[in-house]
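Q&A log
Question type: sequence-to-structure
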Amino acid sequence: MNELLEEPLVSAIVPTYNRADLISYTLDSAIKQSYKNLEIIVIDDGSVDNTEEVVKAIGDPRIRYIRHPSNRGGSAARNTGIEGARGKYIAFLDSDDLWAPEKIELQLALIQKHPHPDKVVSYTQRVVSFTRITNYTQLAINSESLQAVPEKGKGEAEAIAEYLFCSDGEIQTSTLMMHRSLGLATRFNPGLKKHQDWDFCFRLEANGAIFTFIKKPLVIWNADSRKDRVSQISDYRISESWIREYQTSISHRATTGFMLKQVLPLLLKSEKKLYAEKVILDALRHRLISLDNFIKLTLWTWGIRNIRKKLKLLLKNKLKVS
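Response status: OK
Response body:
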């Protein structure tokens, strides 16, 4: 075990909704943490499947089950967990993700060594798997096909928005651990349909949080295609409206980086070609894309690549006929 100054109670906050088929694997990854002084708070956000039965059948005395009478969303469920936590520190674990056995131990050791542990937000690398992984031993088997992200952590003087949208940074909820007082002072915004994790990070930064990064893949994010995933929401206006709320507190470059990564793909699906071209041009102006990529994206936006393919196919067919 890593050398710890103390062994405080840590609260693992697990929001869930209709994941009775998956949550036992998630909870198993929390139960099997090398750091044992844990409470595991499951917030059932109004599930209509047998989630409660599955959770209570596990039988670990460290598990606390809290149920919302109706579905209020992931942010509200996490807030319920923050408010009900008894631990000195809190960590989040979405109900289809997995923790590596040493995750909490490594993060707690890092936090305790910091001069201001009550301000530290620890986050780690994660791996994304499109083939469901149910335990961490499978990660080693599939390691060659899985990439750990992000490659680097946020710079000490780097704004969180610049890191996330201009520097290929990533911070995912299941990687986060912090002092409970910081979580209570910040909380998640229950009114958001998307980008809850980034919004939480923006407001953590505004509350004086110090982000520290562990370059080790300590979380598995299972990227299934469930329709109720917030990432499946395809209305670009939701993302656009969210980032506009921060336009006075983050740089225009960061706003453009967000628009490029999150809004542009949705604009292309919606056939908003003029708007898409504006985003691409802004990205070029802010040096977020190269001139070559600007040309490629512009051709893609206006369907010129498809036209070229069709002409080649037509020419090929005419040659066969003749």
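Response note: The chain has two domains: 10-222, 234-306.
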